[in-house]
Amino acid sequence: MQTPPSRPRRTGKGVYGISVASELSGVVAPTLRLYEQHGLLSPARSDGGTRRYSDDDLDRVHRITELTDAGINLTGIAHILKLQQDNTQLTTDNAELRAEKDNDHG
After folding, report:
1. Residue 101: which pLDDT band, with cuts at 50, 70 and 90?
2. What topology does CATH give the domain 18-105?
3. Helix (H) or strand (E) holding 66
4. Most buried residue, 7, 32, 46, 80, by most Cβ within 10 Å?
5. pLDDT (tens digit, 9 = 90+) per residue, 62-89?
6. Where are the domains of the chain?
């Protein structure tokens, strides 16, 4: 019995060139560049300056696509993504503070 091929591991490291990222995300390369110009994406760069997209970047492209499909412009999307990032950080900070409090009183 053959073992099924393993799925590639998700990575936060930029491994996909723009053409592969475009194919995987369903978003054309010029639009990916536009998202970068608006600060919505920050792909890593190779030593030669080539964009390298990570799985996290592709997830972000998916979220941007959802928001544009909902009729939100790129400026609005930038605000939404920033608020979501801030909320995630606050939630993490809150959980850490609660854990410290529980450890101090436990």
Report:
1. confident
2. Multidrug-efflux Transporter Regulator; Chain: A; Domain 2 (1.10.1660)
3. helix 55-69
4. 32
5. 999 999 999 999 999 999 999 999 999 9
6. 18-105
